[in-house]
Amino acid sequence: MSRIGRMPITVPTSVTIDIDQGAVRVKGPRGELSRSVPRQISVTREDALLRVERSSDEPSQRSLHGLTRSLIANMVTGVTDGFSRRLEINGVGYRAAVSAGNLILQVGYSHPVLVPAPQGISFAVQGNAITVSGADKELVGEVASQVRRVRPPEPYKGKGIKYAEEVIRRKAGKAGAKKK
What we know:
By secondary structure, the protein is α+β, with helices and mostly antiparallel strands. It has two helices and 13 strands; from the N terminus they run E-E-E-E-E-E-H-E-E-E-E-E-E-H-E. The strands form four sheets. It has a four-stranded antiparallel beta sheet with strand order 11-12-7-13, with helices on one face. A hairpin with a 6-residue loop joins strand 9 and strand 10. 23% of the residues are buried.
């Protein structure tokens, strides 16, 4: 059995879970998330625990077993604690601001770049740090990558938008022209 798939998911008291035919809906203090479950995978509830089981030992079902369990566990964590991703802006004159829930970036273009916030996502700016937060882990990561894509970090001066934990490998510039 899958090591991850066979671990039970503990459900806090503030979270309600509805298990329908092929779908799991999780509702908590930070919102509501739902996801479809493959038909080979079954989800059962036992008091404050959720168990994810598969019908056979085929390789395709074995891979779906651990994946489904991780996705449901992330949904439970998201509606209770939430997820966040931190980005940093490096560069002279580069800055960010939040206006009406949307992110406005000034990162060296002739115009400010507007990044709209999807439903369930919020932006926070403090100095040169941008925090993308929400209940859906997948959506938080996707929006953070869209923000990073506006001006990816370049290796020569290190200017751009990068993840807080990301390390930019720097390159040496030109050595200069040789005199004859």
